[in-house]
Specification:
Length: about 600
């Protein structure tokens, strides 16, 4: 069983082999016309007195030659094409392709931007089975990289050498209603956990944009929600049970080996397989979400107030417009109750102009929709946006027009929404995409530095100056600092706040050539932010979104930069002690944190 993670037989590869079926070499017939000319010359030399062949005989030989050529071409064409699926039983196959082994699988992340083929994919159902898998791998020195739901944009959990996934270890083990704590197996998904504990009146303190992550994975990469008073999600961890290659199963907490505990809370899967986690929860509450549309000038005036007076707040910037979507979430007032509000536009009216733009663009690009496609009126806004962008994803003017339609959509979608926190704090991120998200200091709640807004202005300026076909939104969120040293949000000053900014490019097509072009444009976009903004604002990428450069000099610069920000030596020391054979590692981890004996 596999949840969220894309795990499949490499059917595409199998069909690829089918189409490339080899043909037994066949002797190419000599040109009949050449044969005729040669014979005639030889006959003339040996028998000069022989009469010349008649004109009709020459014509006959010519047409016989043409006929033979056509027959040979037809035969070659027939045998060059693979048999259809319902004809594979035929005996006339010249060559039988070798199908892929049954145990070879292709594993990809959700966006399809990273994938590997592997024969080793463990899914233990119990702690004992997991311990055996890790022990055997350690003894054989074979890799079993921990991988969660496969949602990390950079595929940080993938390894062709082998992987271990805890999707079958997904139980709520214990609930302490009085202390508001829950102990769970690390393979449980966020939504599964929330559903499992809501009857006890508790929930998680904060949420990322989506709910399909496994708890072990979301904690190991330092995932976060939004709210300048709320730290990243790993701060909710009370204790962890790690299955390590060298020391077996160990439990770490603030009381038991605190130094390792703080490292392992954002251990990137390199210190042990997280088997169980005890999490501090909060009372389950209904939230009011208030969505408004603003401008950068208005945001600058109200920024401090927005950060300090709202439990959760985020900004969505629309490139090539001055629109800023502000989304605030707070508990429903016990005295006033939920706000009474009648929206000016229905949801259907809010999206209608986007449908109209899609129809207009279909005519412009002369695209006839497939009859099997879902009715346009049934599509959500993000689905319509994907279809619009797919028509011309790298044309700046087209993307800007789509962005303007999105700005209009949000203006017509202003209003309130009431629901439980796990329902409200999610966000429809759209379809497959490339994403880069950075984290950097933004002052304190009492005194915001305003660097977070300056950073956004820098991003928008480089987009417009370089005519980047940047789609919406540029998402900005905040978090209180954390004490885990491997987190981009770590700080020694307790009142620091940090801002997270994400830039994206969607992959709304399955055409490999077009996806490649979008990928190249995205990395150009990302590189501009890197060279012009990262050092200036001390920005570091999210661990699940950092991409390892192929260029050796760029890789060395990245390694040096990470060493200045994070306790790389302490992290590598813990790796040597807990996983000396590096069975939990992969190429990405080895390149980001090279050990002294790494080849």
């Amino acid at each position: 069983m596999q949840r969220a993670l894309t795990l499949r037989r490499s059917v595409e590869s199998l069909h690829h082999h089918n189409h490339l079926r080899a043909i037994t070499p066949t002797t190419v017939p000599q040109n009949p016309l050449t044969q005729v000319s040669s014979t005639r010359a030889l006959s003339t030399l040996s028998s000069p007195s022989s009469p010349a062949p008649s004109s009709s005989s020459s014509e006959l030989r010519k047409y016989l030659g043409y006929t033979a050529l056509v027959l040979f071409s037809a035969a070659a064409t027939y045998y060059s094409f693979p048999f259809p699926e319902n004809a594979k039983h035929k005996k006339a196959q010249i060559f039988r392709y070798a199908p892929l082994p049954e145990d070879l699988h292709t594993v990809s992340n959700w966006s399809g931007t990273h994938e590997v083929q592997t024969r080793v994919f463990h899914q233990p159902e119990t702690l004992e089975e997991l311990e055996k898998v890790v022990k055997d791998a350690h003894e054989k020195k074979s890799r079993i990289r921990p991988v969660g739901s496969g949602l990390s944009p950079n595929g940080i959990g993938l390894s062709r050498a082998g992987m271990v996934n805890l999707a079958l270890m997904d139980k709520v083990l214990e609930v302490d209603k009085e202390k508001k704590r829950v102990r769970v197996q690390a393979g449980i998904r966020v939504q599964q956990l929330v559903d499992g504990i809501k009857e006890h009146g508790i929930t998680l303190q904060n949420f990322a944009s989506i709910r399909e992550q496994q708890i072990g994975g979301i904690l190991q990469v330092g995932a976060h929600g939004t709210g300048a008073r709320l730290p990243p999600m790993d701060e909710q961890v009370i204790s962890m049970k790690l299955v390590t290659p060298a020391k077996g199963t160990i439990e770490v907490s603030k009381e038991k080996d605190p130094e390792l505990f703080y490292l392992a809370r954002c251990g990137l899967g390199g210190l042990g397989v997280v088997a169980e986690v005890t999490i501090q929860c909060v009372d389950r509450q209904e939230l009011v979400e208030h969505t408004t549309v603003s401008t950068m000038a208005e945001i600058k005036k109200n920024h401090k107030k927005l950060l300090s007076e709202n439990r959760h707040v985020k900004y969505l910037y629309i490139p090539y417009t001055d629109t800023v979507v502000v989304v605030k979430c707070n508990p429903v007032s016990k005295w006033k109750g939920p706000p009474k509000f009648t929206p000016k536009y229905s949801s259907d009216e809010a999206i209608q102009h986007v449908r109209d733009l899609y129809r207009e663009c279909l005519q412009k690009y002369r695209v006839v929709p497939d009859k099997s496609e879902v009715d346009m009126n049934e599509l959500s806004f993000t689905e319509l946006r994907d279809k619009l962008l797919a028509l011309d994803p790298l044309d700046k003017d087209h993307v800007a027009k789509v962005n303007q339609a999105e700005a209009e959509f949000w203006k017509k979608s202003e209003g309130y929404r009431v629901g439980w926190s796990d329902e409200i704090l999610g966000f429809d991120c759209g379809g497959q995409q490339w994403v880069s998200e950075t984290c950097f200091p933004a002052g304190t709640l009492a005194k915001p530095s305003m660097k977070d807004l300056e950073y956004i202005e820098g991003v928008k300026q480089l987009i417009e100056k370089n005519e980047i076909p940047a789609p919406a939104p540029i998402e900005q969120r905040w978090a209180a600092c954390t004490r885990r040293p491997m987190s981009p949000a770590s700080s020694t000053r307790e009142d620091d706040i940090l801002s997270w900014v994400g830039i994206i490019m969607y992959l709304p097509t399955t055409d490999p050539r077009q996806r490649k072009e979008i990928t190249e444009e995205f990395f150009h976009y990302r590189r501009l932010t890197q060279t012009q903004l990262w050092d200036k604002y001390s920005a570091y990428e999210h661990w699940a979104k950092i991409e390892v450069p192929k260029d050796k000099d760029e890789l060395a610069a990245l390694q040096d930069r990470l060493r200045k920000r994070f306790p790389v030596d302490a992290y590598n020391k813990a790796r040597r002690e807990l996983d000396p054979n590096r069975v939990l590692s992969n190429s990405k981890l080895e390149k980001l944190f090279p050990l002294s004996d790494t080849i």
